Each structure stands twice: as C-alpha cells, then as structure tokens.
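Try this one yourself first.
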C-alpha cells in the first residue's frame, strides 16, 4: 500500500519542510528555549529532524545535530520512523532514555515498529511523539502506546481525500451514535436482553452483566438459569427479571449473553449451540468461549450457519489463545484473522482493546484507564454490549460503542478507586 505522502500530490521535499517546521513549532509551544540535541538518522525521519533543528536555531534556540546527548536539556529523536526494518541497539536506547531530559520523537520512537506497536530490539521511550496526518497502529497498540508518551498529530498539508485512496481498515475508537428514545416508544421497542446465569454459587458475574445491559438502555433484561440460581438472584435484583431456559424459545428476544461465570463445561457448550440457533443477537463471553475451545471449528460452523443474527465474542488474551491458538502478526492482525475464521465480531480485550470485523475492518480503543483492571469489569462490558445489541445496533458499531462506553465509565472516577458494581452507575 502506498503511503499518504506518496499520493498526496506534494513532493517529498515540501512534506519534509512542512513536517520539520511543524515539529519545531510544537516544541516551541510547549517548551522554553533550552540546549537541544537532535539525533538524525539516514532517512526522511532524519531529514525532518534537520529541518526542525534549522527552525529552532533560527528562533534562537541552542541546537546541535549530534549523537552526543551529554549536557542536553531536550532530545529530539529523529533517528528512525515507522518503517524501521532492523533491530535498534540497546546501547543507543539506554543512552537516550538515560539522559534524564524530555524526549520528543518524530513519527514514532526509534526502535518501534509502526505497524505492530512492538519494539524491534530496544526502543526509545518518548515523552512526546509528533506524527503527521493520522495515527499509526504503533501509537495505539501496546506497548507502543506507552513508549510514545503523549501523541500529537500535526497537519503538514496532506489532504483528507488521501484516505479514499489509502482506504485504511484500521481506525481509533470514538463514541458512536447510540440508540435514541422514541417519543411514542415503549419498553419492547428497546429490546429484550437475556443473560445466562451460572450455578447458585456463581451468580454474581451474570448479575453484573444484566444490570449493565439494563443501564445501557435495553427495555427489558432477564436473567435465565436453573431454579436454585434464580432464587439467589431474586434476593439481589428488582428491575431485572428472572426466567428458566424455556424463555429461549420466545422469538421476541433480541439479544442473548452467555459466558459470565456460566461454567466451563459441556452444558454451557450445549447452551451456546442452542442460543446460536435463535434469531437473537449473541454475545459469547468468558466461559462460553472456553467451553467451546476444544472444538473451535464446530463453534465457527454454528456461528456461520445462522446468518439471521450477529455474534460478538469478547475474549481476553488467554481465552483468545485457547480458541484460536497462535496467530501471527500484530494484535490488530490476530483479531482480524480470528474474526475471519469464526465469522464473529471479535473484541480482543486489554488496555489496547481491538474490535475486529470478519471483513477486515479493525478499531483500537484508547480511552480505557488502567483502573478497569478489576474483578467483574469484563462482565460489565459484556452487559453493555448486550444492551446495545438488544436495541438493534449493528454488531460492529455496538462492539465499538460498548468498549468506548466501558472506558468512559471508568474514566469518570478519575483517580478514585471503584469496583465493577460502581462502574455500572457511570454508564452513559
């Protein structure tokens, strides 16, 4: 695929001049004049650094293009950009990272693979990364996102129309248009969601999912399980309804979630098969995924046989490996391959959650704070997703929106501690 600069209609020298000046302007905007060392490599990234140094010097900054960072008060890393095809030396990374001064990287920190977000050998750890036109996968995928520090995208004259030619499959996640209340609507207009319960000693996870689905706007939410489990739920829920498995035959059900503490066993696997034969949208989470992992091709067949509904799977890395084994490539590549294999939308969870569609589209979420790493958080995400699907959202859009809402709810707590039950109250 051609790069944006190759098809922008601007010659390389103009883009390099624009990029270097934009870098210099951003640095001046953020910092006072100080002794600056610019590390320049052999390619266009290095040329950007040379131009940035020229502008900073013209504006009165003490600047040196050098490989000696001793005495530097600020370092501009213009050694290697996103197209690095060799390992970056540890000794050089240690020298730069150990200087104890702010590091500004151009495009990506040197040593970072722009497509995978993985270091090639060692890697510079930037405080600020300045890139152009649009972010690259390395800016949003871990560990690249952490190595980039703050990422700023600057305009260097590449027109937005270039995107039509590039036709990128990857994008960064943003909040989508959510279902709206209708003036003359009623609860059945907003869908009926089911969440399958675990056994009597494992009811909490499904209850979190059910409450999250209701909070997200589903008109009705029902917990489904055996009698002993439903008796436990009855002591905890009010607006959420309870029913046995006969309700699966109701054609009015619009979304079903199975997985949160459902149990890793043959019974869960059989429930998955039955649910995938209904007309409802389906969320396969946690135990539902693991229960089907020994016969993955059979699961894919169940998913692909019924084209009347959409299926979303929400594995973390461990569950993903159990079902899909070792897939090559970046996290985006792996999620996309899994979606293509299974026929399901894949939400591959983590601090850099990837949402992938079987047609190759992929979205990376970036708004999730580390505080989401708390017990029950994934169950809440499954419930948010189920609530959106119940209301009729298209599965890929619902998956992207659910992950964004999940991160947004956690961010609302700021630095305060919260648990999964608290998280539900912040869904909006």
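Now uncover the answer:
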């Amino acid at each position: 695929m051609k790069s944006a600069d190759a098809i922008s209609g601007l010659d390389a020298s103009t883009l390099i001049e624009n990029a270097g000046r934009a870098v210099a302007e951003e640095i001046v905007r953020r910092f006072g004049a100080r002794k600056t060392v610019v590390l320049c490599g052999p390619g266009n990234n290095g040329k950007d650094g040379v131009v940035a140094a020229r502008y900073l010097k013209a504006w009165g900054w003490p600047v040196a293009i050098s490989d000696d960072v001793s005495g530097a008060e600020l370092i501009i890393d213009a050694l290697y950009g996103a197209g690095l095809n060799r390992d970056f030396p540890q000794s050089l990374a240690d020298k730069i990272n150990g200087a104890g001064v702010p590091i500004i990287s151009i495009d990506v920190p040197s040593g970072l693979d722009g497509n995978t977000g993985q270091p090639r050998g060692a890697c510079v750890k930037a405080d600020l990364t300045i890139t152009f036109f649009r972010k690259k996968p390395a800016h949003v995928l871990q560990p690249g996102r952490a190595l980039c520090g703050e990422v700023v995208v600057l305009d260097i004259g590449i027109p937005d129309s270039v995107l039509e030619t590039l036709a990128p499959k990857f994008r960064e996640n943003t909040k989508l248009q959510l279902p709206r209340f209708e003036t003359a609507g009623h609860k059945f207009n907003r869908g009926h969601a089911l969440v399958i319960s675990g056994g009597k000693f494992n009811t909490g996870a499904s209850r979190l999912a059910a409450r999250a689905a209701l909070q997200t706007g589903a008109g009705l939410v029902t917990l489904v399980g055996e009698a002993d489990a439903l008796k436990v739920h009855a002591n905890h829920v009010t607006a959420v309804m309870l029913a046995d498995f006969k309700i699966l035959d109701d054609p009015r059900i619009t979304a079903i979630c199975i997985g949160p503490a459902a149990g890793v066993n043959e019974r869960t696997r059989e429930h998955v098969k039955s649910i995938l034969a209904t007309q409802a949208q389906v969320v396969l989470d946690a135990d539902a995924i693991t229960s089907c992992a020994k016969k993955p091709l059979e699961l894919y067949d169940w998913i692909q046989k019924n084209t009347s509904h959409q299926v979303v799977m929400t594995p973390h890395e461990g569950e993903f490996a159990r079902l899909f084994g070792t897939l090559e490539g970046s996290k985006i590549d792996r999620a996309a391959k899994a979606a293509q294999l299974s026929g399901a939308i894949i939400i591959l969870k983590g601090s850099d959650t990837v949402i992938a569609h079987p047609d190759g589209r992929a979205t990376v979420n970036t708004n999730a704070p580390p505080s989401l790493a708390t017990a029950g958080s994934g169950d809440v995400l499954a419930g948010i997703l189920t609530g959106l699907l119940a209301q009729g959202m298209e599965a890929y859009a619902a998956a992207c929106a659910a992950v964004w809402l999940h991160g947004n709810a956690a961010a609302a707590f700021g630095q305060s501690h919260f648990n999964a039950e608290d998280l539900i109250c912040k869904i909006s």
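Discussion: The domain at 187-425 is CATH 3.40.1190.20 (UDP-N-acetylmuramoyl-L-alanine:D-glutamate ligase). Residues 12-30 form the longest helix (19 residues).
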